Amino acid sequence: MSKTASLSLLRLTVLILALVHLVVGVLGFFFMPENNQAGENTVWIFSATGMLDLIRAATGVLGLIAVLRPPVIAVYSWFVFVAFAGLTGFGVLSAATTSAGDAVNLNWADNVLHALTSLAALVVAVAGVQQASRASDAVRE
Fold this sequence. Notes:
The protein is mainly alpha-helical.
């Protein structure tokens, strides 16, 4: 696969991740619970809480910035991988218990979304490192 095709695929993957999180995050602000009890409202099947909507919207905006600046894609992908792996781990523990005071209040659909996001970000980050490695090998020859 050529360098430009590989970069295009990485950019497309990051763009899809960013748009999914931006849409769910922004829509979540419109479905906020009025009585401040987390977890009562959802966007499709995903929880809509202030903290979670802020995380998703920020992930989406940063992803769009990364798509516009390809050298930033690798940094963004590593950050998203670590953050969403942690969020997935927290979410599994959180979804297994019911706590009304939980500001994030994740459900199983959120956990699946976050786990898939983390895995996709890991694939993009590793592919970006391999691409950079091949580029530096080509320069040395």
